[in-house]
Structures are given as structure tokens and as C-alpha cells.
Fold these 2 entries.
Entry 1:
Amino acid sequence: MDDFERIYSTFDGVAQLREHRQRTQSFLKDLIGVLHILDRMCQFEPSEAVTAVRDRMEQALGHYGVREIPCEGEPFDPALHEADSRRVDTTVPPGTVVDALARGFKWNDELLIAPRVVVAIHDATNLKHNEEENNDNHRN
């Protein structure tokens, strides 16, 4: 094998690895979507069977390196969290995540799904105005 063939086979192998990684990420995101549905089912209509399936799926994802991103009580990080809304809460510093609406997950330290969170603020003066502005932007 000459140098050109060796280099070509190396690049081809890297491309195949990248494609495999992307397919794996897509598959894991699909499974996390199902886990989110199971979370909602457990929240609104809990049953032992659904809870067992959810727990087993989370365990299986963990076996393959998928980990939940801890967020409640943590400082909001726009690179890691998706801010869904804000809430007045003076018991924690402003910018602290006070609730998670949907869990987020990493795979081998790589963000798969960002957690949807509620972020603490101390002053609600502009809260209503900003929410109305956001609603107007979503309508356009």
C-alpha cells in the first residue's frame, strides 16, 4: 500500500466513525424522547409498570454512557440549559435554575438534549412585559 492509499483509508475510516457517531446520537435522542414521554406519564398518571419501564430505560441508557444533566439549584448556563421561563424566587441567587420542565442528557460528556428549565429572578418588574414581547415574536 502506498502513502496515498494509506492516507485515503485513514480518512475513509474517520468518515465512517463520524457517520456512526451521528447515527448513534440520533438513536439516543430518539430513546430520550421516549423517556420524556414516560416521565410525563409517571408525573400525571403514575403506575408501577410505567415507572418500572422508565427506570429500566434510564438504566439501559446509563449503561451506554448517557447521563442526566443535574440542573436544579445550579447556575443557569446557556451552553447547557434551555431557559423555558423565569420565576420570581428570592430564596436563591438570580440566575439559578429553580425547576426542570424536561430533563437533559449528555453522552460521554457531549450534550445530547438540553434540559428545559425555569430560572430564578428577583425582580418581576419587566417579567410581564418581556413575556408579552416573546408572545408577540412567536406570533410573527
Entry 2:
Amino acid sequence: MPLLQREPPSASRSALADGLPAVVRISRHFTLAVIETQPSVSEPHPAFAMTATAVSKGVTPAIGALPIGWRYLVARGDELAVVTIREDLESGQHYFAEYNVGRFSAATPNVIRNAKRFAASEEADYEMRFLSVPAIHIATIWLKHAEGVADRFIPFGPGNDSLASGRVYGVREFMDILALVAMASIEMQLRASDER
């Protein structure tokens, strides 16, 4: 089945339209050759985050992931960035939060292609989402199963060595690996604070 992609809220698109011109003007990433062209915006997908503590306790993204906003691919010529528009859950306001040209941004188109290829080979419907666990440097495309029974995850690379970049993981295997990484990270932080 084709990958399901929700339309972002109009407030998110407005925040993107308002913030992008200023960022592009001051960005060192976009070269002068493409600075005058309009950026193309594609692949909007909702973004979610989890804490390392929740992951270490085996909480799945379906239960413990919090919505944080929307991500967009922004291209000018051959140059690519990922923009995150955050949503304040209390006020409902959307704001320009991040303009990223780093390693996860560069990997995003390939991971999205893998997600679309996987979804096309399945009979079930999947919605494309972004999931991060910032404390343990995990970024992944989360393929949310329409009926909630068979979520899949495709990690970005380079990232954590415990996960293979671009590979499709089932929820159980993915969460088992993440729980070990999160527990190790929490233990290391506790040891470091004890040594102070």
C-alpha cells in the first residue's frame, strides 16, 4: 500500500513560510548560486519524541511518544536541509524550531525512500512519522501501523551503533535494542554523578 502521509496543520505551514526566508538569508549552507531560487518543501511528517527513561522501561512509542511538531525537507538546487516546526502543546502555537543540515538530514531522503518501498510491499496501511530519543542519539522513521499492531522503524545513520541504518525493525526488536542502549546511558549518567 502507498505510505500514508497526513497534511500538516495550517499553523505549521505558516510557521514554516514565516521562518524559512530569514534562515535561508543567514545560512552558510546554501551557496550563492542557489540563494535566489525558491526552496522546494516536501515530505511533511509529524515528529514525536521519547525520553530515555521511558524507553529503558520498555514503553513503546505507541504509548510513550509525545508529539512535538512537524518535519519538512527543504531543498534548493542539490542542497538539502530538514526544518522542524515545533508545536507548543499547551498553547497550540507553532514555531520555527530547527534548521538542520547535519548527518540525519542528509540521510532523510534515503530513509523515506526505504519507508515508501517497505509500505508499498505490505497489504496494511502505514503512516510515516519521525521518532527521536535525543538522550541516546536515536532518530528513526516510525511507520505507524494503521491498526496499531505492527509498527516498524527505520533508523537514520550514522547514529547509534546498536541499530543498522536503513534496516526495517519490528517494534519488539527495536524496543529491546533501545531499552539496552537507554539503560546503559542512564547507568553511565548515574555513575558520573556519583563520582562528583
